[in-house]
């Protein structure tokens, strides 16, 4: 690799102001990340400087791409109907193809442009307050970015386990669980990982195995406790999937209305661990989309490392 400058596609999954294909100013960190001296800076320059400091090779960053856009591009390569990208993993976000006439920031009325929605921040204006619970508020207050990314905090993998932990604490205080005794482990933030949610909700899991997961958390449980914990996990994950489906239904319906169509056939490219690994999340989300946008036929296409391949595709097109 010495002596050559290789073109690079850079996937960067954080809110950026993007003025050029190869320039992205980081607006704010999300998903629990914090690194000083980056917000307000061009992340492409920061990456280039870091590469130069190594003095080993040179890379020409051709494109900086959000992971939703990368996912949409990868799936679009397989399916020409793919015009939406969705990530449901540690965080959550979506992008879609918007008509140029509706894009105020760019000149021209013809054609379409991909819009990265940063939908995790939906609700930051207070419009979700009616459906946020005391447990959502508790998780938000103790997060690294209080008051921000409110929609994401109700949906994505980073936060679901913490919502469950807060509910279990409340139930225990009220004497409904664990004989009213709160263990030190249960008081520990982040102890209830989202992967436990997936395991506990797995259909083939007997209550005995639910108990062993809880015992691993230092919780002495009865059979009734296990039933309640499983129900809490089900409700929290189901709500997340329904909220995600509601957002997706709104997006596909907007595309349909933009084009003045009575019926729209569209594909959504999806990536993210929560969508892929949780036993019921995708099913509930698909049902919700079907229910809320009856005039759209929506197909979901899973992408394998969508963000990486998508960035490479965009870079290849730009180089050509």
From TrEMBL:
The name this protein carries in UniProt is: Phosphotransferase
How the protein sits in the membrane?
A: Peripheral membrane protein
The family note in this entry says: Belongs to the hexokinase family.
Q: State its location(s).
A: Cytoplasm, Cytosol; Mitochondrion outer membrane
* Species per Swiss-Prot/TrEMBL record: Phaethon lepturus
Q: In which pathway does it act?
A: Carbohydrate metabolism; hexose metabolism; Carbohydrate degradation; glycolysis; D-glyceraldehyde 3-phosphate and glycerone phosphate from D-glucose: step 1/4
Q: Kindly list the biological process annotations in GO that this record carries.
A: glucose metabolic process; glycolytic process; intracellular glucose homeostasis
Q: Which UniProt keywords apply?
A: Acetylation, Allosteric enzyme, ATP-binding, Cytoplasm, Glycolysis, Kinase, Membrane, Mitochondrion, Mitochondrion outer membrane, Nucleotide-binding, Repeat, Transferase
Q: What assembly does the database describe for this protein? A: Monomer. Interacts with TIGAR; the interaction increases hexokinase activity in a hypoxia- and HIF1A-dependent manner.
List membrane-spanning regions.
Answer: none
SUPFAM superfamilies (UniProt xref): Actin-like ATPase domain
